[in-house]
């Protein structure tokens, strides 16, 4: 638990007070792994503070910047199971709330309700991670608004049951908002969040992350990858490359491959060939050529 011990005492105190101590929670297998490295310590401190106060946290940042890892780290620090929904799939009320199903009880047919992630998280007082919340369809927004509302109460449209969240319930959401911008978030939704902007990890911290998580061991090559990452981010901010070119996920993939194959080919596979336009691919390959020659 290095992460926890690195936090300021006041923040550790908040976690201690709000930590899930229920050893027998049937959902404890949903307590996630930590491992997020904050580019600035305040990002984590502020998210912990907001969650401890029962506020919803919105992580906003480009693809592969560590938003999901950030949310998982919060689950880990609070020892709190985290249910997860992704709004980019065909998310409807059933995939949030659950669905009715036919079952047998002593040869008698009964209707059962299989709870969905929202129902489960509210009733068990755990965390709920809502990914790509800006992609939620208009018809599901009222439900989500209810979940986020300070009253924390919703009516399950399938059972008419009124659900009020148990203590411990907390919401972390994420949107993919990069330098170029994406689908804007509905105002009513945005209003209900404390917003944390997640930048890409860079420099010495990125180097440490690569050393800790990638298969690549050669320090000189790692240093070059850190420089490549900085160059890629700059090209993205200048509009020369699409957003995903700068993803840390893709960068770590390239580092992994480089443990076995030449960096230029690794960069082609992990970064360049994912880009839509030939011009962009060429641009990345030229960068690779310049650095790794
Ligand atoms: N600051 C960071 N600390 C630790 N790991 C990081 C960090 N930034 C990126 N990563 C690593 O990069 C990968 C991508 O991170 P993650 O999936 O959390 O990104 P994301 O922002 O959720 O991306 P997307 O918007 O595509 O869902 C993961 O393997 C993650 O561990
Ligand atoms: Mg994610």
What can you tell me about this protein's structure?
The protein has 293 residues and is α/β, with parallel strands linked by helices. The protein has 2 domains: 2-197, P-loop containing nucleotide triphosphate hydrolases (Rossmann fold, 3-Layer(aba) Sandwich), CATH 3.40.50; 203-292. Helix content is 43%, strand content 17%. A 5-stranded parallel beta sheet has the order 2-5-8-1-9, with helices on both faces. Strands 3-4 form a two-stranded antiparallel sheet. β6 and β7 form a beta hairpin. The longest helix is centred in the last third of the chain and has 19 residues, at 219-237. The mean pLDDT is 93. The structure holds adenosine-5'-triphosphate (ATP) and magnesium ion. Magnesium ion is lined by residues 67-68, 131, 174.
Looking at this protein, list some descriptive labels.
single chain; 293 residues; alpha/beta; Rossmann fold; 2 domains; five-stranded parallel beta sheet; two-stranded antiparallel ribbon; binds adenosine-5'-triphosphate; binds magnesium ion
Number of helices in the DSSP assignment: 13
Name of the CATH class of the largest domain: Alpha Beta
Number of domains: 2
In angstroms, what is the radius of gyration?
21 Å
Quote the CATH topology of the largest domain.
Rossmann fold
Query: Major β-sheet, in short?
Result: 5 strands, parallel
**Side-by-side strand order of the widest sheet:** 2-5-8-1-9
Order of helices and strands: HHHEHEHEEHEHEEEHEHHHHH
Report the mean per-residue pLDDT as an integer: 93
């Amino acid at each position: 638990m290095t992460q926890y011990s690195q936090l300021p005492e006041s923040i550790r105190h908040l976690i201690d007070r709000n930590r899930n101590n229920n050893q027998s929670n049937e959902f404890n297998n949903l307590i996630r792994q930590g491992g997020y490295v904050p580019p600035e310590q305040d990002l984590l401190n502020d998210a912990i503070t907001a969650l401890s106060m029962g506020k919803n946290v919105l992580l906003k940042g480009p693809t592969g910047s560590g938003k999901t890892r950030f949310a998982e780290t919060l689950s880990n620090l609070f020892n709190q199971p985290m249910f997860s929904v992704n709004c980019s799939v065909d998310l409807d009320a059933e995939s949030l709330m659950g669905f009715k199903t036919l079952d047998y009880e002593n040869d008698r047919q009964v209707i059962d309700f299989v709870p969905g992630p929202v129902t489960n998280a509210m009733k068990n007082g755990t965390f709920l991670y809502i990914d790509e919340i800006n992609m939620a369809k208009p018809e599901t927004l009222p439900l989500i608004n209810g979940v986020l509302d300070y009253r924390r109460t919703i009516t399950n449209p399938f059972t008419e049951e009124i659900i009020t969240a148990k203590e411990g319930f907390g919401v972390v959401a994420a949107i993919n908002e990069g330098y170029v911008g994406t689908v804007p978030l509905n105002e009513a939704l945005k209003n209900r969040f404390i917003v944390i902007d997640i930048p890409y990890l860079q420099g010495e911290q990125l180097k440490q992350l690569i050393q800790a998580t990638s298969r690549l061991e050669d320090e000189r090559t790692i240093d070059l990858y850190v420089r490549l990452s900085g160059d890629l981010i700059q090209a993205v901010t200048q509009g020369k490359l699409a957003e995903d070119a700068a993803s840390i996920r893709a960068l770590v993939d390239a580092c992994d491959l480089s443990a076995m194959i030449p960096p230029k080919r690794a960069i082609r596979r992990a970064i360049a060939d994912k880009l839509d336009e030939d011009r962009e691919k060429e641009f990345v390959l030229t960068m690779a050529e310049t650095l790794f020659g």
